[in-house]
Design brief:
Pfam families: SCO4226-like. InterPro entries: SCO4226 (IPR042557), SCO4226-like (IPR025336). By secondary structure, this protein is α+β, with helices and mostly antiparallel strands. It is built from two helices and four strands. The protein has a single domain, classed as Alpha-Beta Plaits (2-Layer Sandwich), CATH 3.30.70. Strands 2-3-1-4 form a four-stranded antiparallel β-sheet, with helices on one face.
Length: 83
Amino acid sequence: MPLFMDVHHSIPEGADAAAVASAHLADLRIQDKYHARYLNYWLDPTAGKIFCLVDAPDAESAHAVHREAHGLVADEIFPVVQG
C-alpha cells in the first residue's frame, strides 16, 4: 500500500504533546474502517507543525481518518517512499 506523509502547519491553540498523542490514538481506533494504518507522528512545537506517516490506499482515505477521528485534518499530504 502507498505511504503518505501529512503536514499540519499549525498546532491547535493550547495543544501539547499529550493532546497530539491523544489525537493519534483516536486515529488508531478508526483507521481500519478506511483500510489505513497510521504508523508514526512527529510534533515540532517550535515550528508549530505536526507530521503523520500513514500507510493508506490513497490520500483521501488518510484524510478521512483524521476528519472522523478528531477533525484535525492535514494542510498537505504527500506520497512518500521509505528509503
